[in-house]
Design brief:
The complex is a heterodimer of chains A (457) and B (486). Chain A has 457 residues and is of the alpha/beta class. Helices cover 38% and strands 14% of the residues of chain A. By secondary structure, chain B is α/β, with parallel strands linked by helices. Chain B has 2 domains: 87-343, Aspartate Aminotransferase, domain 2; 350-475, Alpha-Beta Complex (Aspartate Aminotransferase, domain 1), CATH 3.90.1150. In chain B, helix 2 packs antiparallel against helix 9 and helix 4 packs parallel to helix 9 (331-367).
């Protein structure tokens, strides 16, 4: 019986076998030695019709507490923002999503121009000279940025701040373990910022100083002293950004002399989707261009002298340079970059700052409301430093227990920090965006007050 | 004069236009002064676009029409498996319970998602015969790096030293040597034998106790099954090395043979090839790694485990290579691949491999009269032609590829594998029926005629597209990588 995804019928197959001059399809598998051929059915469930399949998937999806039903105050690298409806409808234009990497520019100008516009908007947002066509995600972008710095400086020590996303630091450690690159971590102060004195001691001989802006605790710290320490030591300053919306309100890394920016652009219209796909990107100064990993789209002229776009500087890449390439990356996050480009363009010059400001207002209102409601139980902001849309609350006793309790109350709220920072076991990271209405914020404040009181008795 | 509709989004920007709306301000505004240091506050995002919503929709819709996708027509890009991307997969990944689920949601609130991952681990393990599975890598090359790190860790754990070399056939994808390099290994190339396969003699010679792994693609990039794979794996294993398989070509084997049964220790799968998730114009992909039982301790953390009726992420893995990506992998792609496998079942998956192989062989026999087929014997899911005969008329592979565009087809992969001069690598996939293959064959035959009769026609191709061939060398000499206000 034919399957709905496979057009050839039994008659077609017989006609084709005749043309080839063999008597059965199995004859075509003759090069596979008989003793390694699979002589049985795969032990997997039988085929499903589309309606049965969809019902099955809906049942599984309903096992999850999606953000439509629970009040979600989770950030920690992935943020909930409203994406205008047109974005997903355009992402479903199959000319975009069913295309391959644009190796044939004459029939891929749509993808290529969109990525060129993406690269430009990333440069404008970060105020850097150039940006690549995307990386897998923020964690791998940061890691590749650090490796890029080791090549540019010919040094093999990377200093990374402990207030950089813990999972990002884990990825950096994994990638570098076999490359003779040493990773040194620098701690944070009581205000949640990088310990600058420790940094000054550790910076000597470093290829890169990697910090996060705003940092994992949501703290907005002044990048200038960090960049200064880096440059004085001959190291490159690498800024990681996990909440790029903040750059609509804050001076961009490029304003402070940062050399490389590694960002996660999930905030820009990409659904949380339990881990991906997301959109990493690296932006950098001109002098870093030849060491940039991944694809770059550039302008070109066709034989008639008309402007268009091509993949360029590919001699950096694995399909040309093989083991001497700047990275092994091939497939990146093209469609997610298109998504981020459409998001950036839709909010645009005025809307992105407006959205950022609303996030700022909501988060500050929430921090104040929660502190007022729960301070009697000892709950208070852990760091007094400036923040954007995320902040750390301490004083919970066991933050994991409080998180569980809040879930029972209908709030998916707060990333407990104890697993990654034992000294912050009583603390959780909360995120408030434009997706959290005032009523939800008030509800969360009461629930936290109640749970914190329970925990402290 | 350029059509104004062709301009860049920045050139279409119009001060004061807007496409956005933000929720009502239902909380008091927080004064910036005192909350943020004044010198950290940004004035504006210079030159960022300003357009209305319908302006944007027209702009991006217009761009989409300049693209060619699998839904546009046949896309026989060798080694890329450009098969049909089922639409139900898109609907599945967008279910709010999947799409809106935050990756840091507590496990008890993510049981459905964890179940999809757990079951997909099992399905991929059964399909490949390699039961230790990680879904974390974001693409094929990421999977290669992950798999090679696992091999390194395994050898360190077993022998106390990781060894220093990786053997890679000359027909391999460029990502292979690059991934091995980023895992701290030196690469030694092995020449293909006269039949296009790995020569076990050359392998025996190169295989020493300093070789960590053989990294090979099977079927290889010539579309040939490595028929001496069992012997080759034996040679590697006898010296204590491991066998890594690049799974880019797994579409030829699903339901027909399992890499775990022919000596492979570790391999990656490209869900965006074999398992129908869309390529997205260059990603996102997903590159799970499957491996033998002995490799289980080295998988990246976390893996999804089942305890009783509950699923959880197990991060307590002391021998793990570590984490290769933040969060749980490209979950949206995992949902799509899961939906695909469940839609096909064992019969459908087997039919997939059979039709993919049948289609590629049909193209070979139909084209061999007019095109050089360097390895003209039964092939698997793809066939490699060369431009050898057309060279006599000064026509090259590039000309043939570009002319195919005028006939309404996406060109095959060209100039790869490197071991064939002027390679034209055709992978029709199972998604094409014989009628569409005939149309492709007719186009290729017509081009062979044109090459003899009117080579200039091919040199000028494509002529039906909105842009003709580009001067890529000039573009690379003076790279313009972004727009700037004039």
């Amino acid at each position: 019986m034919t399957h709905r995804y496979i057009p050839n019928t039994g008659d077609d197959i017989r006609r084709m076998l005749d043309a080839i001059g063999v008597s059965s399809v199995d004859d075509l598998f003759a090069p596979v030695p008989a003793d390694v051929r699979l002589r049985r059915d795969l032990k997997i469930p039988a085929a499903m019709s589309e309606p049965d399949l969809m019902k099955h998937l809906q049942d599984l999806a309903c096992e999850n507490a999606d953000c439509g039903r629970a009040a979600v105050f989770l950030g920690g690298g992935i943020y909930r923002h409203f994406a205008p409806s047109f974005i997903d409808q355009l992402l479903l234009r199959s000319e975009f999503y069913t295309a391959y990497t644009p190796y044939q520019p004459e029939i891929a100008q749509g993808t290529l121009q969109a990525i060129f516009e993406f690269q430009t908007m990333v440069c404008q947002l970060t105020r850097m000279d150039l940006a690549n066509a995307s990386m897998y995600d923020g964690s791998t972008a940061m890691t590749e940025a650090a490796l890029m710095a080791t090549r540019l400086t010919r040094r093999d020590r990377v200093v990374v701040a402990r207030n950089v996303h813990p999972q990002y630091r884990q990825v950096l450690a994994t990638y570098t373990q076999n490359l003779g690159v040493t990773i040194v971590e620098v701690g944070f102060t009581g205000e949640g910022g990088v310990d600058l004195q420790a940094l000054a001691r550790l910076a000597d001989g470093a290829a890169a100083i990697v910090f996060q802006y705003p940092n994992y605790f949501g703290v907005v710290e002044d990048p200038r002293p960090i960049v200064e320490v880096a440059h004085r030591a001959g190291a490159l300053a690498v800024a990681t950004v996990t909440e790029p919306l903040a750059l609509a309100l804050l001076q961009p890394p490029g304003a402070f002399g940062v050399d490389i920016v590694a960002a996660e652009l999930q905030s820009f219209g990409i659904p949380p989707s339990y881990g991906g796909p997301y959109c990493g990107v690296i932006a950098a100064t001109e002098k870093c261009m030849r060491q940039m990993p991944g694809r770059l789209v550039g302008m070109a002229k066709d034989t008639e002298g008309r402007d268009g776009f091509v993949l360029t500087l590919s001699t950096r890449e694995q399909h040309i340079r093989r083991e001497k390439a700047t990275s092994n990356i091939c497939t990146n996050s093209g469609l997610m970059a298109l998504c981020a480009a459409m998001f950036m363009a839709s909010y645009g010059k005025r809307g992105l700052p407006a959205l950022a400001r609303l996030n700022f207002d909501k988060a500050h209102h929430a921090a104040g409301t929660i502190a007022a409601a729960a301070s009697a139980s000892g709950v208070r902001p852990r760091f007094g430093a400036p923040f954007f849309n995320e902040f750390v609350l301490g004083g919970f006793g066991d933050a994991f227990q409080v998180q569980k309790g809040l879930l029972e109350d209908g709030f998916m709220a707060g990333v407990p920090l104890g697993r990654d920072y034992p000294e912050l076991a009583d603390a959780m990271l909360l995120c408030v965006t434009e997706m959290n209405p005032a009523g939800q914020i008030d509800g969360l404040a009461s629930a936290i007050a109640k749970r914190a009181a329970l925990a402290s008795t | 004069m350029t059509d104004p509709r062709d301009r860049l989004i920045f050139e279409k920007s119009h001060e004061g236009r807007r496409a956005y709306s933000v929720p009502a301000q239902d909380v008091p505004a927080t004064p910036m002064t005192g909350s943020l240091p004044a010198d950290l506050v940004r004035e504006e995002i210079e030159d960022f676009p300003e357009l209305s919503e319908n302006n944007l929709v027209r702009h991006f819709t217009r761009l989409s029409t300049w693209n060619y996708g699998v839904d546009t027509g046949m896309y026989p890009l060798g080694s890329c498996t450009m098969k049909y991307n089922p639409k139900v997969n898109e609907a599945a990944a967008r279910l709010p319970g999947f799409g809106e689920l935050h990756p840091l949601a507590p496990e008890c609130a993510a049981q459905g998602a964890l179940q999809v991952m757990y079951e997909l681990q099992g399905l991929l393990g059964e399909i490949t015969g390699l039961p230790s599975v990680t879904l974390q890598p974001a693409a094929g090359a990421h999977g290669e790096l992950t798999g090679m790190m696992m091999i390194r860790k395994r050898l360190e754990d077993r022998d106390g030293r990781p060894r220093s070399l990786v053997l890679i056939p000359d027909s391999a994808h460029g990502t292979n040597p690059s991934s091995a390099h980023f895992c701290g290994y030196d690469v030694r190339e092995i020449r293909s034998g006269p039949q296009g396969n790995v020569s076990t003699d050359a392998l025996s010679e190169a295989m020493t106790e300093d070789v960590a792994a053989l990294m090979l693609t099977n079927p290889n990039t010539l579309g040939m099954f490595e028929d001496e794979i069992v012997k080759a794996a034996g040679i590697v294993h006898a010296k204590g090395g491991l066998v890594y398989c690049d799974g880019a070509n797994m579409n030829a084997l699903v339901g027909k043979a399992r890499p775990g049964d022919f000596g492979v220790d570790v391999m990656h799968l490209n869900l965006h090839k074999t398992f129908s998730t869309p390529h997205g114009g260059g990603g996102p992909g997903s590159g799970p790694v499957v491996s033998t039982r002995e490799m289980y301790p080295y998988l990246p953390a976390p893996v999804v485990v089942k305890e009783g009726d509950a699923f959880r992420l197990d991060s307590d893995r002391p021998k793990s290579i570590g984490r290769v990506k933040a969060f749980q992998g490209n979950f949206g792609m995992l949902v799509r691949a899961y939906a695909y496998i469940r839609a096909l079942g064992p019969d459908g998956l087997r039919a997939t491999a059979e039709n993919a192989v049948l289609n590629a062989n049909y193209v070979r026999v139909k084209l061999r009269r007019r095109y050089d087929v360097p390895y003209d014997r039964v092939n698997m899911h793809e066939v490699v032609l060369s431009d050898h005969r057309q060279n006599a008329h000064d026509v090259t592979t590039l000309d043939i590829a570009k002319r195919l565009i005028d006939f309404g087809f996406h060109p095959p992969t060209i100039y790869f594998p490197l071991v064939v001069h002027g390679a034209i690598m055709v992978e029709p996939t199972e998604s094409e029926g014989v009628d569409e293959l005939d149309r492709f064959v007719d186009a290729m035959l017509a081009i062979a005629d044109e090459a003899e009769r009117d080579p200039d026609l091919l040199k000028r191709a494509p002529t039906t597209t909105r842009r003709s061939r580009f001067d890529e060398a000039a573009a690379a000499r003076k790279p313009v990588l972004r727009w700037k206000k004039a």
